[in-house]
Design brief:
This protein is an alpha/beta fold. It has helices spanning about 15-25, 40-45, 45-50, 75-85, 100-110, 125-130, 170-185, 190-195, 205-225, 240-250, 260-275, 280-295, 305-310, 345-355; strands at about 5, 10-15, 30-40, 60-65, 90-100, 120-125, 135-140, 145-150, 155-160, 325-330, 335-340. The chain is globular. It comes from Flavobacterium sediminis.
């Protein structure tokens, strides 16, 4: 697969990843290489990665506890201290080998260590390959509030080796699939249509779909890096989805939802809002709802759950002047940003979702 050019970096795929990395570590003469992993990627991905890493530079491995609950400033403090103790300086480079938590947090750590050092994202989950590792958003959660602390700064490169996907569970794969489906819904109906017969897709098909998903996201980000306009489209499903994810994360009586599972619900709810606001025709709403519910289990919400989720939406990063802003749909492949919805409509959306 050909390299994708972003604003100030490139996205490499499969065998090209390691050729690029070997050349970079030879020519730029970094003082030290920090590889940030979590418990899972340390076991399942790190050995294969290190076997391909050709360099005489000292390599230091920093391992995080796995899970969204560790994506916070406390973990950053531990990583900053470890890098300091291990002799990190301004000519060090960070390689983030992992899923969205590792790439988000590791990138933020690199952006702030010594006022900023180079970093490369090497995503190992489908979700991180098509979403978290691409686009220059780096940050951590504030308590259970998603991605409240962070910075937009692009990586040195992104290296996507789809061989890492063999270590994932089917649930993790479905989680990543949600962001790929979102890319089709917001930007490319032809791409969306390719997912209607998932059982017929081969491994080669998946590689192509991943590549096209990255192309869609990169095209949007390249037009609006700092999210003042069209990049907001990528938040479709996330205003409600992030609130749902945060609510389930903080509630001991609820089983945590993976990011993509929460976003799938958010996309159905926000597609409903698009319909009742008069933007999206009902046939396309039903199409979105049918296909997402065919992939993801329907989750039950009572009135108290819904109110708590609505209360959490005030912390969404798109909000301005205390008002919750939604990304809604005009059609599959076309969006409307900066939209407002009354709470009554949101309650109705949850009711329709659970029918």
């Amino acid at each position: 697969m050909q390299t994708i050019k972003a604003n100030h970096y490139e996205i490499f795929f499969n065998e090209n990843c390691y050729q690029y990395l070997a050349e970079l570590l030879t020519t730029d003469r970094y003082s030290k290489v920090f590889v940030i992993v979590d418990e899972n990627t340390s076991q399942y991905c790190l050995p294969a990665f290190l076997s391909q890493l050709v360099t005489e530079i000292t390599i230091e491995i920093i391992e995080l506890e796995a899970g969204e609950q560790h994506k916070n400033i406390a973990t950053c403090l531990e990583v900053w201290q470890a890098m300091t103790d291990l002799g990190g300086d301004r000519k060090s480079i960070v390689l983030n080998l992992g899923g969205g938590v590792v790439t988000d947090l590791g990138s933020f750590v690199a952006c702030t260590f010594k006022r900023g050092i180079d970093f490369i994202n090497i995503p190992t989950t489908l979700l991180s390959m098509v979403d978290a590792s691409v686009g220059g958003k780096n940050g951590v959660d504030l308590g259970n509030l998603k991605n409240q602390i962070g910075i937009i700064r692009e990586p040195k490169a992104v290296l996507i080796d789809t061989a890492f996907l063999s270590s994932l569970s089917s649930r993790e794969m479905r989680s990543g699939l949600a962001e790929m489906l979102k890319h089709g819904i917001i930007a490319d109906k032809t791409y969306w249509n390719k997912f209607k017969n998932l059982k017929d897709l081969s491994t080669e098909d998946l590689d192509t779909l991943i590549y096209q998903s990255v192309e869609i996201k990169n095209s949007i980000v390249s037009e609006d890096l700092t999210e003042n306009g069209i990049r907001k489209a990528l938040n479709f499903g996330h205003t409600l989805g992030h609130a749902i994810e945060s609510y389930f994360l903080e509630n001991e009586n609820k089983e945590n939802l993976l990011h993509g599972e929460a976003i799938a619900i958010g996309m159905i709810l926000e597609a409903y809002l698009s319909t009742v606001k008069g933007f999206l025709i009902n046939e396309e709403y039903q199409e979105i709802k049918y296909h997402l519910n065919d992939i993801y289990e329907i989750v039950d919400f009572d009135e108290k759950d819904i109110q708590n989720i609505i209360d959490l939406m005030i912390y969404d990063k798109k909000n301005e002047f205390g008002k919750v802003q939604f990304v809604l749909l005009e059609s599959i492949g076309k969006i409307k940003i900066n939209q407002f919805c009354d709470n009554d409509l949101i309650y109705n959306a949850f009711e329709d979702y659970q029918k």
